[in-house]
Amino acid sequence: MKFNVALPAFLALFAASLLPLSAQGEAKVAMTVDLVAWGDTIEGLSLKTEGKGETLTALPFTYSTPARYTGPALMEVHQKGGSNSSGNDEEISAEDAEHESKPLVVEQKPEDLEDLSKSKDPIVRELFRRRETEPSLVALVKLPTNTKRATVLLAPAGGGLYQPYVINDDPSKLPPGKLRVHNLSPFDISMRFSGKQKADLKPGRDSVINAANGRAVYELSYKGPKGWEIQENNVIPVRPTEQTQLIVLKSDNSYFLSSDGAAGGFMQIVILRRSAS
C-alpha cells in the first residue's frame, strides 16, 4: 500500500548539529528501545546489539515488543525478509540455510536511492557507506546517552530505507501521570487544556502538561494553508501509572482512515502509552 508522510523540515537538518561520526561511534549506551512504524507495519527488523539479538516488528503508530540494546549510540537497524516473510517455521535444507544466512536486500527503486545518495546529511552518508558491506542496513539512529529508554519512530525515506525520529522516554523527560505533547507535523499547532494550560508548538517541539483528575481535556488548532483553524476538542485518560504521549502529525496512511475511507481531520493524532514500571 502506498502512502505519503509529511515529516517536518527539522528532521532533514537533524544531523547537522551532531558530533563527528567517529566520535559518536565511541559512545556506548544500554537501554530499552521501542520501534514504532510511521506508516504500515515493518517486519523483519533487528538491532545490531551486543549479545543475542531478536527479530522485531514495528507496528503502525503503536508500541509492540520492546528490545534491549547495548552498543554504540549510533544504532544500526537492519531488515531481513520484511513483509515478504512467509512465517513458515519448517526445517530448511543446508543449501537454503546458507542463503538464509546472507542479508536480504529490500527491493529498491534506483531513482530513490540515487536521490538519497546525494544527501549531505552525515548520518545518511554514513548509512550508504556502511550499506556497501551490510546491505540489510536500513536505518542509523542517533540515540541519547542520558536515558534508559527511547522510542524510535521509523518513517519511510524512499528506496526501502527509513528515517528515524527519537523520543527520549527517560522518566525525567516523561513523568508518569503527565502528558507530553509532540508536534511532528510541518505546521504550527496550539493546544489549550483545562486549568488554563497551553502548548503552542513549532514543528519538532514538545511540551509536558499536568493532567487534572487523571485526564486531559484539550482543544487542538493548527496553522494550515488557510491560516489558524480549530480541528477538534477531545479528552484522553492520563493514568498515574503510565507514560502517555500525544503526537500530532500529518499523514494519509490508511491507519487514520475510517471504514469508508474518510479521513478524520486535516491533522492526525496518535496516543502512545505504556506502563511506567
From TrEMBL:
Bias kind Acidic residues: ranges: 88-98
Alphabetically sorted, this entry's keywords are: Signal
Positions of the region Disordered? 77-115
Signal peptide span per the entry? 1-23
Record protein name field: DUF4198 domain-containing protein
Annotated source species: Roseibacillus persicicus
